[in-house]
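Example S7 (structure tokens).
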């Protein structure tokens, strides 16, 4: 089996993973809920606006900071949004683990996820020492 075939097989396994299915299901539930979808849209609009301001060198004033904090509280108070974020983070952890395994194999087989040692790569996130 070629490298490309193995990559395709890995992609198919990821696509059929429970973690991805759960994330997609949570995303659909969030999008289909008018309150959750509205909060996400409002948050995204405000975020883009404030990022544009920062890119122009402007700082947020006190009212804007308060507005952001209140909106974040609303967003994090919505269970559908929180559920989606948790499932998204879980899926992203799986992808990070896959990337670590691939990187470890390319670097010569040291598996940093099993704990750090002197043989571990400099990108080890297992203990933060390397």
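Recovered sequence:
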């Amino acid at each position: 089996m070629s490298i490309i075939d193995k990559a395709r097989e890995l992609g198919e396994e990821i696509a059929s993973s429970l973690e991805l299915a759960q994330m997609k299901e949570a995303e659909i539930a969030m999008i289909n809920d008018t309150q959750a979808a509205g909060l996400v849209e409002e948050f995204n609009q405000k975020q883009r606006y404030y990022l544009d301001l920062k890119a122009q060198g402007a700082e947020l004033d006190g009212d804007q900071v308060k507005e952001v904090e209140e909106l974040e509280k609303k967003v994090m108070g919505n269970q559908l949004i929180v559920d989606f974020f948790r499932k998204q983070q879980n899926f992203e952890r799986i992808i990070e683990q896959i990337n670590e395994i691939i990187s470890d194999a390319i670097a010569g087989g040291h598996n940093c996820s099993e704990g750090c040692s002197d043989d571990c790569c400099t990108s080890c996130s297992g203990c933060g020492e390397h």
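Notes on this example. Residues 44 and 67 are 13 Å apart (CA to CA).
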